[in-house]
Specification:
With 93 residues, the chain is of the alpha+beta class. It has a single domain, classed as Fusion Protein Consisting Of Minor Coat Protein, Glycine Rich Linker, Tola, And A His Tag, Chain: A, Domain 2. Helix content is 34%, strand content 30%. The chain contains two helices and three strands; from the N terminus they run αββαβ.
Amino acid sequence: MPVWDADEVVAELRPSFLACYKAGLSTDWQLQGRVLLSAKVSAAGEVTSTRTISREGLSAEVEACLLDVVSSARFAPPGGGGSTLNVPITFRR
C-alpha cells in the first residue's frame, strides 16, 4: 500500500538526519557517504521496524542514529497490511 505522505514526513526528518551526520563529523571530519534504510510502516502509520539495506562511507554510529530517527517517524495510515518504505540518505562535504 502506498504511504501518501512519505515524502513530506522524510523531509521533516532532515534536520535530525543532519544532526546524526554532524555528530559523526565530530569524530571524523572527512566523513561522507550514503545509506539506504528500509522502514516497515503499520496499517496505523507507525514504524514497526527499520533496517539498513546498504551503507557506504558512513560510520556505524551515524547509521544507528539514522535508524533511530526513522524509527520515531509517524506516517499517514496506509491501510491494508501496512507498507515498506526505502529511505535513501546521502551526505557530502
